[in-house]
Design goal:
The complex is a heterodimer of chains A (159) and B (304). Chain A is an all-alpha fold. Chain A is built from eight helices and no strands. Chain A has helices spanning 6-21, 27-31, 35-46, 53-67, 73-87, 89-92, 97-121, 133-151. The longest helix of chain B is centred in the N-terminal third of the chain and has 39 residues, at 78-116. Classes of the chains: A mainly alpha (159), B alpha+beta (304).
């Protein structure tokens, strides 16, 4: 185990960005987890002094520019989600695995809920319930990351 | 203990500004950006610069898929190749015959036009591009192609494939550009019904990959299976390209308009190659009339 460093944080966020940029299409696009947000939450619980609300905002803006949507919508959603993660960070790290997973699912759903009206405003039809499938796949990704923590591969929480 | 300084107590945990402050500051930043982008379109240059910066990342992200595609292309069975070759050759022959007829017709058309003294209606130049992404956003029907400002692509150009109209270029980046598909809610295409010659405007429905034909009376002569093609009136799309086929026709007594839904003919999810069409419309009379108009409007406004 080793302490999280800035290099870890930025490299993993870059990797998440590349995952987001992969050419997804069809069902894959619907089921695509929000890689960047999951990576952000992962670091905000473990290293809030390296990855905070500002990081979330910048990454959200990068996602907006990359996706071609209205600039700032993802940034806003990430900022609010990051606030709720950082605010309760000290309590969250004491939670059990499944309690954390539940909270993360709520956060992922919240970020999608924030983006929903913004995307509707900037044009686009109302999606069906499958829209929220990406939160569930995001949760699966989170649990996958949690396994690395159990195995001792992930950097130590530095609180 | 009772005298414990609260400032000292919190200083133990402090890491810069409090989360609430950060939330307010960055939230405001995001809202301001959204307003700038949606209302004033100030961010176009920043967006283009950022997209150019992101380009290597995107190429890296696409590399594994492209490599697997290359490998798959390489590992084709000989029998498949022979079969495909045979099929292509017959199609080539058929098309060659059609092409000869077309040339004849073109010549004849040109002669007739010259006889009439009419200017050539329009000339098209096309550019072959490839779809690299079919949208990162589930909400909008957009695709990204690998041609950009560097290749002479401009916003507003039409994009077609072998089957028909795919859409229109709406945003141009240095190395890529964004195509809004005909099924997007924001795109309208002037069309003509092939069977009757009726002109209409087709709007994307924004969901279920469908197109609708609004504002047509219930008595309109449209049947299921009718083909819609571009009318060429707008000067964006060349005339006569297939756009959609009517799949549903409803006449409800409580609405003065018929509810017509169509399915697009072009297959953005099936094809990878597309053509970007640049139309040069010769509009001799239109251009002459258009120019002085703003001046007249200004004068008219000043007089009273």
């Amino acid at each position: 185990m080793h302490a999280a460093s800035l290099k870890h944080v930025y490299l993993s966020l870059l990797a998440a960005m590349v995952c987001y940029l992969l050419p997804w299409s069809g069902v894959g696009l619907l089921l695509r987890p929000d890689f960047v947000l999951v990576a952000l939450l992962f670091w905000m619980l473990r290293a809030p002094h390296l990855c905070n609300i500002g990081t979330a905002w910048a990454l959200g803006l990068a996602v907006d520019f990359a996706g071609g949507g209205l600039a700032g919508q993802t940034a806003l959603a990430y900022t609010v989600t990051a606030f709720l993660a950082v605010q309760y960070q000290r309590r969250l790290v004491l939670f059990s695995e499944w309690q954390q997973a539940g909270y993360v699912l709520l956060l992922l759903l919240l970020s999608q809920l924030i983006m929903l009206p913004l995307k509707l405003l900037s044009g686009g039809g109302l999606p069906d319930w499958l829209f929220f499938a990406s939160s569930l796949s995001g949760l699966a990704l989170w649990q996958l990351l949690a396994v690395t923590r159990v195995l001792g591969l992930a950097p130590r929480s530095s609180v | 203990m009772a005298q414990l300084d609260t400032a000292q107590q919190t200083a133990f945990f402090v890491r810069g500004p409090s989360p609430a402050t950060r939330l307010v500051v960055f939230g405001l930043f995001a809202v301001v950006l959204m307003v700038l982008d949606a209302r004033f379109h100030y961010l176009t240059e920043i967006r283009q610069g950022f997209s150019a910066m992101l380009h290597p990342l995107e190429v890296a992200a696409r590399a594994p898929l492209a490599a697997s595609r290359h490998v798959r292309d390489y590992l084709v069975l000989q029998a498949d190749l022979v079969e495909e070759n045979r099929r292509l050759r017959t199609r080539h022959l058929e098309q060659q015959a059609e092409l000869q007829r077309l040339r004849l017709l073109q010549q004849e058309n040109e002669q007739l036009r010259r006889l009439l003294g009419a200017a050539q209606a329009s000339a098209h130049t096309t550019k072959l591009g490839e779809i690299v992404l079919t949208g990162r956003d589930v909400f909008s029907r957009r695709a990204v192609i690998n041609l950009g400002a560097r290749h002479g692509v401009e916003a507003g150009q039409a994009v077609i494939d072998a089957d028909g109209v795919v859409g229109q270029i709406t945003r141009v980046y240095p190395f890529s550009s964004e195509v809004t598909q005909v099924t997007d809610k924001e795109l309208a295409v002037p069309v003509q019904v092939e069977r009757t010659g009726l002109r209409a405007v087709a709007f994307g429905l924004g969901r279920d990959n469908l197109i609708s034909l609004p504002y047509l009376p219930t008595s309109v002569d449209i049947r299921r299976g009718d083909l819609l093609h571009t009318s060429g009136i707008d000067g964006v799309y060349p005339a006569g390209l297939a756009v959609a086929r009517v799949v549903g026709m409803e006449r409800s007594p409580d609405s003065p308009f018929a509810r017509i839904t169509c399915a697009p003919v072009a297959g953005i999810d099936r094809q990878r190659q597309v053509l970007v069409v640049r139309t040069q419309v010769a509009a001799p009379s239109g251009a002459d009339i258009e120019k002085p108009r703003p001046v007249e409007v200004q004068r008219a406004r000043r007089q009273p």
